[in-house]
Structures are given as C-alpha cells and as structure tokens.
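Annex B. Sample input.
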Amino acid sequence: MIFEEFFLLELIFALRRKQSRAVNGVRFETNDIIRSRVKQILPFHPTAAQKRVLKEIVEDLKSDYPMNRLMQGDVGSGKTIVAFEAVVIAVENGYQAAIMAPTEILAEQHYWNAQRVLGPLGYSIGVLRRGIKKSEKEELFERLAAGDLQVVIGTHVLVEDTTAFRKLGLVVIDEQHRFGVVQRLQLMAKGENPNTLVMTATPIPRTLAMSIYGDLDLSVIDEMPPGRSPIRTIHEMEHNAGESYRMLATQIAQGRQCYVVYPLIEESEKLDLRSATEGFQKLSQVFAGRRVALLHGRLKSDEKDAIMRAFAAGQIDVLVSTTVIEVGVDVANATVMLIVHAERFGLAQLHQLRGRVGRGRHASLCILMTSHRLSDAARQRVHAMVSTTDGFRLAEIDLRLRGPGEMAGTRQSGIPEFRVANLMEDSLLLALAQREAQQWAEREGEHQRLVEALSSRSSGVGPAGLMTVG
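Annex B, continued. Sample output.
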C-alpha cells in the first residue's frame, strides 16, 4: 500500500518529465571561448560539488529539451556563482537570462553581485523592482524587449504582462519555495521553452524533495567553498542579555559588524515580544557612540537599499532588522548574529538567519536569545541549532518535528497527503517507486493508458498533477 501511494505520485512526475522533454528547448553550445569566459568569473577554484553540478547543468543546456533543474545547497555553498556560470553560457550563445528573487533586498543583492562578477565581461545588466522610478523602469522594459539588456534581475515584476523579452533563453528562480508553481510557469512563458534553473538555500531532505519537486531534476551542492569561517552557536536567556551585548561590543571593537534580528516590526498587543523598533531604540543606547541602524520591510525601497549599501560598506556597526535579511545578504565582515525571541522562529528560518554570518575568514558567532519558558518543540529546535551547522541534518530534524506538510507549506507546494506512507520511515520504498515509475513512463505507447489509470486510482495524490499530465 505504501509503495502504491508513492508509485502513483512518482508516475505523475515521471510523465511530466517525459512531457517536458518531448518539446524542443533552447539549445546552447559550449566551446573553448565560452569555457574561457566561464572561468573568468570564478573568484576561487570551484569545489568538486560545484563542478559536478555545473556539469549536470551544462549537459541539460546542450540537450534538445529544456532544462528543468532544482539546484539545492546549504547557506553559503556557492549556488549563485554556479547560476552565474549558466548565465554566461546563455549570453555567450546570444540569449537573454532572467533571475527572479522573492524580495527587493535579495534582487538588489543579486544585482550587485552580477555587476561585480559579470560586469567585467561587458554584459548589459539591469534590475527591475517596484522601487525604481517610472522613467527608469520604462527604459529597462524597452531595452529588454529590444534585446539590448542581456541579464535582468527582478522580483515578481518579471512575470507581469508589461515585461517582454526579445530572446529569453535562461530563467533562474531563487528561493523557489517563496514562489508558486504558477509564477515559475509565467516567467518561463516569456520565452519559447527556455531553460529553467531553480535554486534554494533551504535544505530539503531528499525524500521530501522527491515528493515536492519530483518533476524537476535535482542537483545538490553538498560541499562548502574554502575560506569559510566556522560559526559557533550558543543559547542565552533574555535575562542574561547584558552578556550577549558584551559579545557584540567585543566584535565591534575589533572592527567587525553585527546583526540583531527581531520577529516583529512594532510592538504587538497580542504577543509579548520585543519589536525591532523598540529594540533599535534600546540598542542605540546600549551601543551609544556606535553606528546603529534599523531595517524592516515597511521602509521604502530606496531607504532599504541605502541601509544595506551602508552596512556592506562597513558604515554601520549594528544592523537591527526583521527577517528581511533572511536570504541573500552577503557581508563578509559581519561576524555576529543575535536572534531575539529565537523560540518564535522555525528551524529552517533560524538556519537561514545564521547563514548571514560566517561568510568571511573571521570566526563567527550566532546567539539564540530566548525566554526561560520554552515549549518542548522550541527547546528541541534550539538544541538542534546549537549542536550542528549542517543544513541537511537540520532539515531532517525539522521534518521529524513538524511533519512534511507543515514544513513544506502544503498549499504552496502541493505536497500530497499520504494515507499510509511516511516520508521519513519509507524512504527506500520511495526511491524504489521513483525508479519503477520512471521505467513505466519510458515505455512506448503507454502514455494514455497510464493517464487513464492514474485518473481512476489516484484521488489521494490530488488532481493538479493529473491535469498537468493529461
């Protein structure tokens, strides 16, 4: 019964993959000149994992069918540079590349990195987001439609009707779990079957990835680049806040920078939590004479950009923030992450926040500050964070603590509700079901019969997959 549940789901994914490979995609070539251009952008010698994943991507790009690949890697594993390598291949083949990010801060971060990494190659690069002036946005739209803009980075604005490409060949979607499947398809529809690379820094256990992203080929970067500093994680009670502040002060005195993250922007009457605005006022007093700034989602785009640029330039000592800095922010000189009311954050979110430090050569510290009253689940999350920095290990723990539906977000991801199967306990059967389903999907002349069989038997895995297959 467990095998049958898994098999029906994996058969849907296998038929989807076969459908996607039945259409002609944008086919790229690689030669010595293109390989030389790719090597030009590498800031360091790539890890074996990065080489392996790039090889998998290149094989997809050279095939007749469009690439549909999920690139998964822990925080700081070097996914962005691999994505930029794919962008180089696309542009050198005469196509445009689009990178879609879930937040304006992350889009801006990608734009800075693209300017730094791809700019020396002479590519024209633009960023589309809600905060830019109307005249500037219209000019970018015109250049994009004319093909003068080779690389565009943006938020949801990339999928709007006003955004048109002349020759879109590569779509890169960062933090896939922040977008719905429909948005991914909307961006892909801007070109004629463009190659699609989906990235996530949220580690997902392989069994869960097989059940959520089974229609995508999976690449995993499971190795960290050299030169990354270790991150020590400690747990402090809020009544001992003074000791945490002394740790921050020590790092600031050494020329380092710090993050302090709060779960709310303003004080809530319903939740007894310190807000970021209140925390900013207090920390401005604690660190009098130091440069303290406040960052949150309600600021205007220009204000957020100015604060992040100042922090990246070393002009801010303590950045008080909400979770808007959860993904993408990369400041090598930031060595301390203090998370206030850490018990209110999920395990994946805590790991993402911790990943904002430890990005340079200096030893880094993550402080989880909590109240003295913790639920059993919160205590287990804090213990897990203190005991390991391995994102994939934390993802397995998270899967056990919360279950697959809650962890993945059932409504967004469309993860099925299994009746008898268990993703954690039945991983071997899931892998077997995937192999068996792939073999059945490859059989000639079986497509219609399989769709009919699925339609009559797979009510438990949801109708959306059948609509796509049929």
